[in-house]
Amino acid sequence: xxxxxxxxxxxxxxxxxxxxxxxxxxxxxxxxxxxxxxxxxxxxxxxxxxxxxxxxxxxxxxxxxxxxxxxxxxxxxxxxxxxxxxxxxxxxxxxxxxxxxxxxxxxxxxxxxxxxxxxxxxxxxxxxxxxxxxxxxxxxxxxxxxxxxxxxxxxxxxxxxxxxxxxxxxxxxxxxxxxxxxxxxxxxxxxxxxxxxxxxxxxxxxxxxxxxxxxxxxxxxxxxxxxxxxxxxxxxxxxxxxxxxxxxxxxxxxxxxxxxxxxxxxxxxxxxxxxxxxxxxxxxxxxxxxxxxxxxxxxxxxxxxxxxxxxxxxxxxxxxxxxxxxxxxxxxxxxxxxxxxxxx
Length: 344
Description:
By secondary structure, this protein is mainly beta. The protein has 2 domains: 1-184, CATH 2.40.50.140; 188-331, no CATH class. Helices cover 10% and strands 47% of the residues. The protein has helices at residues 123-133, 229-238, 301-314; strands at 13-22, 30-34, 40-45, 47-49, 55-56, 59-64, 67-72, 82-87, 100-101, 104-110, 116-121, 139-152, 158-171, 186-200, 207-214, 219-226, 243-261, 272-295, 327-328. A hairpin with a 6-residue loop joins strand 14 and strand 15 (207-214). The chain is globular and about 65 Å long. 28% of the residues are buried. Residues 319-323 and 332-341 have low confidence and may be disordered.
């Protein structure tokens, strides 16, 4: 476990996408920045179009450094992996067998057997390599981790950020065609979270899960969505605030539209049309939860408040405050429940 400033284990999240590359030609898709400290960073923001309307935006980023960290997996079960620190210019030239740079796994070419040729690059190098090596329309498979942070803008409002950082990007095993009846969209996530509560939308069967995510140097407030009413009832009935649990689901995209009456004079019946307010709404929709991952001891309210206090002292805290028995999508069993006992 990586060392954290607050002393608590991170509640990690990850995702996987399959789709078509988009946005590589967009201005500022790739950025090289040099900061006043002299640090240099490469960042690539691109899109993965997972179906005809949904586009998810992962990020590859990394700093150039004086040193690079190399990693070698343990040869025997139970042994610890080995790590080496080398000069930056030697990050790909280290001669001892089995050591690889810690970074992003990239597979932009295939061998004669149609297998991806995979290279591990630093995030700094991978951002530039992927930008120059992939074109819009390329079929890819992307995996990575969810990264949460927050900050206050000039008006003092809290802005929450959720990045999809890339750990791996490969050419997909076959070309993607959204019109192919056998194509299955993939935009899944899994997240360990600290449950706080759940509220129902007053207009529809839509539920908002309030939670906290423990990042390496902060504790962030986050929100997820549930459309499955029985699952929402299960969470509300079984989970108390500050219970840790692992959930899973899909990153969903939908158009935000509203019907607006046309006000100008027209011939015949007055026309109405669909006005697009925002191009796309993206939601992290919980579809299942694993009760075997429940933990009521590690992240109590008192423990989290103490962790935030430590972060405040360090000047870091910017915000407050697979089992067959899974709840939701993974559970195929249907149980009859008295609806009068349900919260919604």
